[in-house]
Design goal:
CATH architecture of the largest domain: 3-Layer(aba) Sandwich
CATH topology of the largest domain: Rossmann fold
Largest sheet: 6 strands, parallel
Structural class: alpha/beta
Oligomer: single chain
Length: about 290
Amino acid sequence: MDMWESEDFTNLNGYQPDRVICLKFPAYYTRHDNKIVWLIHQHRQVYDLWTDENARDPSARAMRRKIIRKDTLYLSEANTLRTESRTVSRRLKEFNGIDAEPLYHPPPRPESYYTLPPQPYIFCPSRLEDLKRQDLLIRAMRHTRSRVFALIAGEGGARERLARLIEDLGVSDRVRLLGRIPDDDMPSYYACSLGVFFGPRDEDYGYVTLEAMLSAKPVITCTDSGGPLEFVRDGQTGLVVEPEPQAVAAAIERLVDSRSLAVDLGHAGRERYRQLGISWDRVVAQLLS
């Protein structure tokens, strides 16, 4: 924080940039007469992820007050302020009292995604972390009656815990932890899936949702998942359920029972992506206008 606050990008190594575009905490503390902020995320640990345990620590409380005060100051002084999603905008308004419009961007290599007839598996790609809630899908598989599988891709700190959960629930014949999938292989896993589960807690944005839409696959997400809810319309482009294993299982069963529903929801999702006009050309034009 102190380093970025001391930076003056008006003169940068002998160059005079006409503008500076800042994305993340605490880079937006830097100084420039034409500072643009496209806020990807703040330091969530002092905002929505603040805990009672943190609150018992006087030094943590002091740091929280400092970050919120400085965030409010330096974000307010930006010539242009946009966010990556309505979820980030909502937090910014709630904690800092600042209004900002979202500006959506595409996932990496959007042209690589395609669709094929659905196979009997739910795909769930993401970092294996508590906030991503892969455990919801694992627990849901215990309640599904149909012969359907869950393929969970990614690495992360929760891998061992999730592996134990799979064994403890006796669903190892229906749930696989695939580990990291090469980027070139990822589109094929989306393309052949029956649907995609992405039910994180209050996600900032989430490429998984957009990648599923580009693959014409319905997304199962949760009522408190944040970013995905900006794209997934329940019963239109996917299914939105309570963050409970039984509710997730019921959504999976709906897709299994009606492949035509899964296909229709997926194609509607791809059309919604197209209608939103998400592109880097639009992002750059908005930030430089």
